[in-house]
């Protein structure tokens, strides 16, 4: 299990000091850390992914007008406030990519969605921890090119519940 507070401190330090930070030099001068939602253990899921038989390669448009290629790896189902939801996982090389849009998009988070790095446990099981969801770099600096969340990963839930 990850030490969420330590993870967040390291992330803030990276944003404030690292040369690959998405922040400009001007932004770094007034940066005092990202705003985080409180930790919620119920948002840490172990899921079983149903792999797509065809795993086709798709082009996902980016925030700067380009495209990035990913394979549609598989889909998992889960429940939020008693409502069923599903998300698609994408793959590039050996890395898994989980972009999503929820009800906070455009209000408290980046309008084009957030990303998650997910942990493979093998045998198509993954740890999906929504406590680790983050805004892509283009949310802080338009010079960065970020894949836009495909429509199939826009969550349309009836409640006000959203992922932190």
List keywords for this structure.
6-stranded antiparallel beta sheet, 2 domains, 9 strands, 3-stranded antiparallel beta sheet, mainly beta, 164 residues
Question: What does this entry look like structurally?
Answer:
With 164 residues, the chain is mainly β. It has two domains: 1-36, no CATH class; 40-153, no CATH class. The chain contains two helices and nine strands. Strands 2, 3, 4, 5, 6 and 7 form a six-stranded antiparallel β-sheet that branches. The chain has a three-stranded antiparallel β-sheet with strand order 1-9-8, with no helix packed on it. A hairpin with a 2-residue loop joins β8 and β9 (125-129). It is globular, with a radius of gyration of 16 Å. The two termini are 18 Å apart. Residues 158-164 have low confidence and may be disordered.
Topology:
Elements: H1 4-17, H2 25-29, E1 44-48, E2 50-51, E3 57-61, E4 67-80, E5 83-92, E6 95-100, E7 114-116, E8 119-122, E9 125-129
Antiparallel strand pairs: 1-9, 2-4, 3-4, 4-5, 5-6, 6-7, 8-9
Number of domains: 2
Give the count of helical stretches: 2
Largest sheet, if any?
Answer: 6 strands, antiparallel
**Low-pLDDT sequence parts:** 158-164
Mean pLDDT: 90
User: What Rg do the Cα atoms give?
Assistant: 16 Å
Short description:
With 164 residues, the protein is mostly beta strands. The protein has helices at 4-17, 25-29, and strands at residues 44-48, 50-51, 57-61, 67-80, 83-92, 95-100, 114-116, 119-122, 125-129.
């Amino acid at each position: 299990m990850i030490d969420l507070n330590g993870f967040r401190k390291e992330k803030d330090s990276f944003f404030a000091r690292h040369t690959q930070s998405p922040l400009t030099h001007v932004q770094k001068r007034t940066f005092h850390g990202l705003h985080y939602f409180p930790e919620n253990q119920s948002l840490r899921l172990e899921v079983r992914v149903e792999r797509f038989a065809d795993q086709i390669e798709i082009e996902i448009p980016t925030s700067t007008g380009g495209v990035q290629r990913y394979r549609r790896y598989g889909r998992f189902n889960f429940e939020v406030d008693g409502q069923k939801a599903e998300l698609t996982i994408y793959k590039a090389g050996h890395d898994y990519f989980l972009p999503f849009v929820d009800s906070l998009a455009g209000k408290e988070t980046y309008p084009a969605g957030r990303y998650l790095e997910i942990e493979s446990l093998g045998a198509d099981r993954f740890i999906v921890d929504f406590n680790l969801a983050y805004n892509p770099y283009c949310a802080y600096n338009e010079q960065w090119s970020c894949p836009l969340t495909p429509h199939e990963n826009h969550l349309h839930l009836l409640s006000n519940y959203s992922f932190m």
